[in-house]
Amino acid sequence: MSGSSGPTGLADFSEMLARGADAPEPDPLDPATQESARRRRTRRRVAGLVVVLLIVAAVGTYLPVTLLAPLPTAVLTATKPALTVPAAVQLTLPAQGESAVSVTGAETFAGTVGTNGILASSGGPGPLPIASISKLITALVVLQAKPLTGDDAGPTLTFSKADHDLYDQYYVLGASVEPMKTGSTLSEHDALALMLVASACNYADAVSTWAFGSRARYLSAVKTWLSAHGLSGTTIVEPTGIDAKNVSTPSDLITIGKLAMANPTLASIVGSRTVDVPGVGAVPNNNISLGSEGIDGIKTGTLDSAGSCLLFSATVNVGLPKPITITGVILDGSSRETVNSDAQILIRSIESGFHVVTLETTGTVVGRYGTAWKDGARVVTGDRASVLTWSDAPISSTMTVRPLSITAGKTVTDGSTVGSLDFTVNGSVISVPLVLDGSISGPGGWWRLTHPEMLLGGH
After folding, report:
1. Which uninterrupted H or E stretch holds 68?
2. Which of the residue ranges 3-12, 310-319, 381-390 would you say has the lowest mean pLDDT?
3. Where do runs of H (alpha helix) occur along 149-187?
4. Would you say 307 and 313 are in contact if contact means Cβ atoms under 8 Å apart?
5. Are 355 and 418 in contact (CB under 8 A)?
6. pTM score, two decimals?
7. pLDDT tens for each residue of 106-144
8. 305-316 as b/e, with b when 16 or more CB fall inside 10 Å?
9. Residue 240 to residue 169: CA distance in whole angstroms
10. Distance between CA 153 and CA 265 in Å, rounded?
């Protein structure tokens, strides 16, 4: 049979396969074909809408999350400033004899109190001759029996022939004396002034007998007075100090000196450069140390057999609201000039032990805050602080700088307090504020949109 040219011929079917067709071309006008096309278009529209909705939903979530998310805390780097504590004070005590010193008015500095009220001592604690310092004890005992108050001159003493003879008696012994005529009179105050300022032995003897009636009664009163004040290291055998058996210890004399300066009458007399006594005239104080290094008393003493001694009090400003009082004693010095010099050197060495320590100055950089968006500011001290210390008193410090959170739309302004530097000195705390040097603001929107990992917990 001859070949057929119909559509179902083998040649035609092979040609269709060669073209990749697996079925005849659909008829575009066929209702079934049109319905299929409509369904495909609907599916594409739905899929496109879903994609759009997903994009809108993602953008709608991303924008507020990134633009409103809390900002990361600023990173702090900080170092506590170093502090130098002054070296321990080196008190300069006399190399010769015995000495002791006490400080009052600085009790807030524990190191100034010392042991039993004695800040420092040298040469031993044993009793030594006190020469004319004895007259100070005589004055204290007399004033206990015949007290004076305010500007009261006190009762009048009339000097007898026996009193007048005391002048020659002590003059022969080489002691200090002042004129005392038979029948002359002086007030108790003026008699005490001659006894202490001029160190007149004849007046010390006469006044003690006047107050107590006899030497024996005077000595009994002294013994009772010493016992009442716990001064067991002191022995008095006569009222002037001409006898080397009048002895005392440095610690006892510190107490005696404080008792004397606590008595307004005695403090005024021993602090006078001169006294004007009726019938005698202007009498200079034989305590040549007065006025040097704040010395305002108390009594000198010299015996050829026992050297020179000085019981002194000094009022010194060291930076406290009120001056401090230094009470000291030097026994068995080589000369009056030596003990005066030693006293002044000792006072200066005590003064040098008080230091105004600068704890911190304003504007010291102690740290820096930095942010992920490259903004930042330094942390500096906001004030100056200093403190008065004694010797090498320890000073400790702690620094606290709080975490800094930046709030959207707000700026942490220059000068904001962000912590404190706290110093502990002498049991007290001194605080220096730490402040921001500069301001820190939050980042812009573009940084937020491009750094989601820093806002949402990433690294």
Report:
1. helix 31-68
2. 3-12
3. 161-172
4. no
5. no
6. 0.80
7. 999 989 999 999 999 999 999 999 999 999 999 999 999
8. ebbbbbbbbbbb
9. 12
10. 10
